[in-house]
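Lay summary. Proteins are chains of building blocks that fold into shapes, and those shapes determine what they do. In this project we predict the shape from the chain. Here is one chain we studied, written as its sequence of building blocks.
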Amino acid sequence: MKFTKLALAVAVASVAVAAQAQTANVTVYGGLRAALEVAKYAGPAGSARITSMENISSRWGMRGSESLGGGLNAIFQLESGFGIDNGAAGSLNGATQLFNREAWVGLQGGFGTLRLGYGLTPFDDVLGMAHHQGANSWENRNNGVGGGAGFAKRDLFTNYASANQCNSSAFDARYGNSISYATPNMSGVVVRTQYAFVGETSSNACKAWDTAITYRQGPLALGATYALHSNFTGLGSVVALHDQKAMRLFAGFDAKVVRFTGTYEAATYSPASGSLKYKYWDLGALAPIGAATAGVQYSQRDKGLAAGYNPLTQALTVNAATLANWNNGGGKHLAVTLDYPLSRRTMIRSYYAQLKNETGAKVTALSSGLWHSF
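And here is the predicted shape, written in a compact code that computers can read:
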């Protein structure tokens, strides 16, 4: 009797799974990215050389869809970062989180795509168009002079998912508590907008709103985006509530032998003491060399948060006198990359990068690592 009941339960479960498979599709994916890196730091506080095993945004996730009929689908994505160098779980706002990179559910159909939850912003969509193969520590100008007013891995990418995270000058971000809508692809044109309640508190009611338009057709890729942060803090020593806004333009052209890219960005911060602005631009090129792909990218920002290296703490620290040093906070960044595929899903990624800001702080880095996707 017990065997009969067990067999019946297995049969029912099998039928349920088979029925579910007809209407739903779930994919498990990820990337394992480890690199050996040597970085030399020099600045007003001293100099140091550090050799390390770097984790380059390793992650795993699940994405899926379910047909609801009439061309309408339910969709979702969950993604978690982790340290391939030490096995550490991903974190969000300083605390360990299961899905610290993406966590949203939505609907997709002829009307476009609607998402509810936590995820990358339209501003990041356009910023990412200038990435050479992907973010890679010091090679990524995003960690140096792009995507925010900070310098060298400080105060740049931010996960805005709770009230105490309304305190950054970064525009390269993920928004929590957000609603995102993207139009259908219209002959290569897609418009996406995302509104975030972020803090959801009366005492720190910060809000954020990004909108982007992208075009990808044939050899041409174009992007334009605008971001507004309302009632944010966090601009070095500026802690009072203020508004932040930024715009970014991108253009890329694939000339078969060489792919050219270029970006222009401008941002304004409006604390009570007055308006602070910076301008940023980058130029890059990617070209095949046999089976490998070589790249070069130069970027520059005119103003921002000045920083100097402290070899005792092995960290780049922003000068406390932010307002007085804003004009000295500009930076320059150069990266040369070489990607060599071992298979469709595995490659060796190497780079040389150099960053320097107007106060004299300088970083020179050399790296090579293994990237595997599944």
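What the prediction tells us: The domain at 29-373 is CATH 2.40.160.10 (Porin).
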